[in-house]
Design a protein that fits this description.
heterodimer; A: MetI-like fold; B: D-Maltodextrin-Binding Protein, domain 2; D-Maltodextrin-Binding Protein, domain 2; 2 domains; ten-stranded mixed beta sheet; 11 helices
Chain lengths: ~230, ~270
């Protein structure tokens, strides 16, 4: 264990170019996926929160259940879709960072949508009467509420980012863990573990946790500052 | 579809830099060649000569062959000759060449509960392990190593079953990690063993049996089946591996002074 901490610190201290490339790709892929998933998931969650349609309870249950999608299953489905023998094979996306972004987007979309749905619904309960008396229709209400509770939605987005940056099953299958091309933090850790280099693997794990911590701290800082400014 | 356009835009933004090069081929190969560090040694030499970069996806031989069959790579470099020839017969691959060999070894606990150390007879050793019901970790993943292991059990006339026989369903390294933790016997290619760092109480128990010979072959995905295959560049890689320079590069890869792969391409 001490070995691992030392090895992790050494990795950071020596600023190994290869490692930084891996870290950079991890962040690029996961942040892209979370951005895409937020773009779709936040309005979707708000729409479900405000909308009244038949089967709504079923949709909510389904959405909540999909938060537990196993990454390896998502990876397999995306692999079969993107494979040359699959329906989207002609695009040649398999084993590229784009395929990894796509897989992680599918993975985190339900998390962001489900958490947004809950947050917007709570706000809707509080403001429904007020908004209705102002003659605001459903769609406008959903967007207003989304903007109103934007700081609490950050938690939903960060939960998505946590899931994306921590998963290994999906990116391993659709990315292929190709050195210098699709190798990210988690697949590197899996690879070093399989080589039996456990201290290095654990060291990389510590680096990964540190990066996630820094990203979360930064997000928290931005939120606090923005909240203060908007009173 | 807007989502797709957004996706492509973000994807493009995410794919600047090192991974946006055009002249590359995808080679599906086995964990043994990748984990041992062979590719990291020979690929730069190939790239310097031809300008082609090689993207290696490392999997078990069964999965690697399936990837080629689906057209998801250009070349495969694997080690299960019977399965390779079958796939060629079925028209999925062309231009197979023998490239190199290494050997399998049986590793096991230093205390050696099945008393197999020192023998060269891999088949007899397996029989002893089954009689002693000593823990044995099997890949169980249809890889080349798994296929080789099953051939040996068959030769030994033993159907491996029971609580002592444990299928990990994982790669070579993961299986060795498991064997190391359980103090179990396992069959591994020598390359992975030499570069494996978490040996614990394990050591090589049986080696040198000709039946533990491990032949690697390379072949091109059939362009007639998959027109998008990068035929010229893929063939260039196949040709280079069996060329004098390629064979010398393979022979030149050593860990702690020990050669891992022995080139044996026929000219």
């Amino acid at each position: 264990m001490l070995d691992a901490v030392v090895s992790g610190l050494q990795l950071v201290a020596t600023l190994d170019l290869r490692l930084w490339q891996v870290v950079g790709l991890s962040l690029a892929v996961s942040v892209s996926a979370v951005a895409l998933a937020s773009l779709v998931g936040l309005p979707l969650g708000a729409a479900i929160a405000v909308g009244r349609f038949p089967g709504r309870q079923g949709v909510i249950v389904l959405l909540n259940a999909l938060m537990g999608l196993p990454p390896v299953v998502v990876g397999l489905v995306i692999y079969l879709l993107l494979s040359r023998a699959g329906p989207l094979g002609a695009f040649g996306l398999l084993f590229t960072p784009r395929a990894m972004v796509l897989a992680q987007t599918v993975l985190v979309l339900p998390i962001i949508a489900a958490l947004a749905r809950q947050a917007v619904e709570d706000a809707w309960r509080e403001y429904e009467e007020q908004l209705r008396s102002l003659g605001v229709d459903g769609l406008r209400a959903a967007l207003t509420l989304l903007w109103d509770i934007r700081f609490s939605l950050l938690t939903a987005v960060l939960a998505g980012l946590g899931r994306a940056s921590a998963e290994v099953g999906a990116v391993m299958i659709v990315g292929g863990n190709i050195d210098g091309v699709t190798r990210v933090m988690t697949t590197t850790i899996a690879l070093e573990t399989s080589k039996g280099d456990l201290p290095l693997a654990l060291g990389l794990g510590i680096v990964l946790i540190a990066i996630v911590l820094v990203v979360n701290a930064a997000a928290h800082g931005v939120k606090e500052a923005a909240q203060r400014r908007s009173g | 579809m807007d989502l797709k356009r957004i996706l492509l835009a973000v994807g493009l933004a995410a794919t600047t830099g090192a991974w946006a090069q055009g002249t590359f081929i995808v080679v599906s190969s086995t964990t043994s060649t990748e984990n041992s560090g062979l590719f990291r040694h020979i690929l730069p030499i190939f790239q310097q000569k031809t300008g082609i970069s090689v993207r290696v996806v490392a999997q078990g031989t069964g999965q690697a062959l399936d990837m080629g069959r689906r057209g998801d790579c250009d070349v495969v470099l694997v080690h299960n000759k019977a399965a390779e020839l079958k796939m060629i017969e079925d028209g999925w691959f062309v231009n197979r060449r023998d490239v190199m060999y290494n050997d399998f070894v049986i590793v096991g606990p230093k205390l050696d509960p099945a008393q197999v150390a020192g023998t060269k007879d891999g088949v007899a050793a397996l029989r002893k392990i089954s009689v002693a019901q000593a823990p044995f970790a099997s890949r169980g993943d249809k890889s080349g190593t798994h296929a080789a292991e099953l051939r040996l059990w068959k030769l030994a006339g033993v159907e491996p079953k029971g609580s002592w026989y444990r299928e990990t369903g994982a790669g070579m390294g993961a299986t060795l990690n498991t064997a190391s933790a359980m103090n179990a016997y396992a069959i591994t290619d020598r390359g992975t063993w030499l570069s494996f760092k978490n040996r614990g109480g394990l050591a090589i128990r049986v080696e040198g049996d000709p039946r533990l010979f491990n032949q690697y072959g390379v072949m091109l995905v059939n362009p007639a089946r998959h027109p998008h295959v990068k035929q010229a560049m893929g063939q260039a890689f196949v040709d280079w591996l069996v060329s004098v320079q390629g064979q010398a590069a393979i022979a030149g890869y050593k860990i702690e002074g020990e050669q891992l792969f022995f080139p044996n391409a026929k000219r």
